[in-house]
Amino acid sequence: MNVDIQFLKDLQAQMQWGNENDYDNQASPRFWVLMDYRDVPANEDYDSTHMTYFHSDGDFTEFKSIKDLKEFLTDYYLEDDETNELEGLLNNNDTDFEELWGFVIENLNGCGFFDEVAVKEESFIVPNTMFLTKEEAKRHIELNHYHYTSKVHTYAMTAWRAPKVKDYSIF
Fold it and tell me: Strand 114-125 to strand 50-56: parallel, antiparallel, or no bridges (unpaired)?
């Protein structure tokens, strides 16, 4: 029982407003979650977008750079290139992404496996995350960083519409 009481006292001390804790710009946070980011399809006319390029034939391969695209084409399409035009583009260091992508769409996209789509970055609260202290959330990120993007961060949550939480002095 003493361990439980000590835990609650320590938690109360950590959650007191006015100490030097960083509360993610919240006046009185009650718990922390993780905020991460993902790309979602967007409307080019209304959203701030960028293009994502990919090959999808049941497997999904995204091309983030000219290197990614060249490696994929070398592995899967170079043998079928009877004109040697693809080989010329792949071996030319001056070939840029747009030029190579244009060739792919024009000559290799008979089945429609190559495509591009406008996307925007969207923030979201990572499901199944809840931490009583920011330090606990930060430690989780350190230990499990491989599950998240490099932009993941703590996000403070308040409970101002929860009367039961307001009634307890520990919070």
Answer: antiparallel
